[in-house]
Structures are given as structure tokens and as C-alpha cells.
Amino acid sequence: MWTKSHSIVTKEVTKEQMWKLFADVNNWHTWDKGIEFAKIDGKFEKGNHFLLRPKGGTNVKVELLETIENNRFLDVTKFPLAQMYDNHLFEETSNGLKITNTITMKGLLGFLWVKIVAQKIADALPTDMQEQIEAASKL
């Protein structure tokens, strides 16, 4: 198993703003420069899934495993002989909102998918999370 995590503490946004940003999957392309589109039918809730196309990539199905409004959500993307879990956590602290994003790769070929996909996502977390905060602050 491979895991990378990044946290930011900010007073620029609330957990409600962050939740609103992520729950509006069909508009992710307006703030996420790394994707062509993301599309969900129905609600942003456990058991549902959405399609996402990374720039220059192919469509990826992402399943929502857990959604706790204004608190956290966990999703999984399945690859041949591996699964990538993406956990987003929003915690109120005395210093502001603590936002944590953790990427975990499991499975027999997890090491391969880390090299192909997950490491790039993990390396981009600090920048991506700052862009998410900026986008959410406008909601």
C-alpha cells in the first residue's frame, strides 16, 4: 500500500464552501485545470459515481464510497489489479479550516499505478488544493 497526504489550514473558506465546490461535480472543469470534464448523474452521495476525463487521458469512473456533508468524502478509482482511494477531509480548528487530501493506492499492481497516475496527483496536491480554496472562496 502507498499513501500520500497533504493538509492546508485556511481562513479563506468554510467547510460548507468546500463541500459546495466538490458536490458540484459537473462544474469541476471550471476550476480544475487538469481535467477536460467531470460528469455526475444524480446526487453527490455514497453509492453514486461520476466520470472524469483527465486532460489528454481517457474517461475514468470514480465511485463515491462515503459522503458526509460538509465533513468528508471518500472515492475510489479502479485500475487493473489496483485501486486508488482519494479521501477529502474538512475539519474546523481554532486556526481555521483544515483541509486534508489523502491518496492511497492498494492492490497487486499498485506500485505500477503509483508511477503512472498517483504520484503525479500527489505531487500536485499543494497547488491543486490552493486552487480549490480560491475557487470555493467565490461561492
Kindly summarize this structure in a few lines:
The chain has helices spanning 15-23, 110-136; strands at residues 2-10, 35-40, 49-54, 60-68, 72-79, 82-93, 96-106. It has 139 residues and is an alpha+beta fold. It has a 7-stranded antiparallel β-sheet with strand order 1-7-6-5-4-3-2.
Structure notes:
The protein is an alpha+beta fold and 139 residues long. It has one domain: START domain (Alpha-D-Glucose-1,6-Bisphosphate, Chain A, domain 4). It is 26% helix and 44% strand. The chain has 2 helices and 7 strands. The chain has a 7-stranded antiparallel β-sheet. Strand 4 and strand 5 form a beta hairpin. Helix 1 crosses helix 2. 17% of the residues are buried. The mean pLDDT is 97.
List keywords for this structure.
7 strands; 139 residues; Alpha-D-Glucose-1,6-Bisphosphate, Chain A, domain 4; seven-stranded antiparallel beta sheet; globular
Tell me the layout of helices and strands.
Elements: E1 2-10, H1 15-23, E2 35-40, E3 49-54, E4 60-68, E5 72-79, E6 82-93, E7 96-106, H2 110-136
Antiparallel strand pairs: 1-7, 2-3, 3-4, 4-5, 5-6, 6-7
Helix pairs in contact: 1-2
The second-level CATH architecture is: 2-Layer Sandwich
The SS-based structural class is: alpha+beta
Number of helices: 2
Q: β content, as a range?
A: 35-45%
Overall average pLDDT = 97
According to CATH, the fold-level topology is Alpha-D-Glucose-1,6-Bisphosphate, Chain A, domain 4
Give me the oligomer status. Answer: single chain
Form type: globular
